[in-house]
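Record 1 of the preview.
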Amino acid sequence: MATPSLAGLPVVWSEDCMRHEPGGEVWLGVRDPGTEIPERAVVLLKALTAAGAFVTSAQAHAGESLLAVHQPDLVEFLATIWTRWESAGYVTEHGRNRVVPYLFPIPGLTDGLPKRSPAALHVQIGQYCYDTMTLIGPGSWEAIRGAADAALTAADLVCGGSRLAYALCRPPGHHAGPATFGGSCYLNNAAIAAQALRHCGAGRVAVIDIDAHHGNGTQAIFYDRPDVYFGSVHVDPGAGWFPHYVGFADERGAGAGAGANQNLPLAPGTGDQDWLAAVRAICSEVAHRGADAVVVSLGVDAAVSDPESPLELSQAAYQRAGELIGALGPVVAVQEGGYDLATLGGLVVATLAGLITRTG
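->
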């Protein structure tokens, strides 16, 4: 298949995103190598520039942009935890070279009791991180902030009149909620971009998540809001896939946001036809509701070659999804998952080429 042209497409990138070295992930009590690695960004930059896109640097933004969707204590925790971890001797005295949670204050432990702030630093982590797979290292905060700035800069471009901008965010973000992080995500880049679009005058924003896994963090941020619609097409969590507890079809929003949340979970093994039918259903809902701007959580881990999901999509399906979404209005595309290095670049280029055909 010939490489589509991305001539003129702005790719927003921060070199700081290379500084996040999670050092693997702890799954079932054992640290494995993990798949959210810096090489993902290297592969994407090479493929995007080869297709004619131009790279522009992410611009630093005020911290208020993060606080528009995240609780201050989460942001403060992420910004300071590595320095505190290192200063407390966890690396030199205990040989723990990454931050990983130890104890989780689930309701069964704390129900009916006064809220406590644990003294031990290694216990505090479980107040924010909900899994053991999302590790923090010495350069993680700089990368987390760089990814958020990339999303915000892409939103600035669309606010300024561009029809399409792509933020090469690493680490990804759609599993990060208002006060929680997990699933290899720390701050929610897509939600930050959506809120920035609202701030610059977009009355109605739609976030469409095509990552293989449900964007539980994005859902949580906007669940009771009518101004930001969230639609997600993903592998069925009820079939044993992350995030397991969230992402079911009956989650439709709450309060003023009732009806503004739509989940279309799909069975393992789903291929192009049924996946694209779900994408069309989401796009139809967005068209019906109306959107002044769209944010795409652009994960490509539903591809047949990807090790992180059981869905079986082709590159052509991603390009067609881009065409469908691009017809809805100006788009900020934010990178989420996609872990097969051999096919990652081609899948993202194809999706963006589809978006260009309708937004360009």
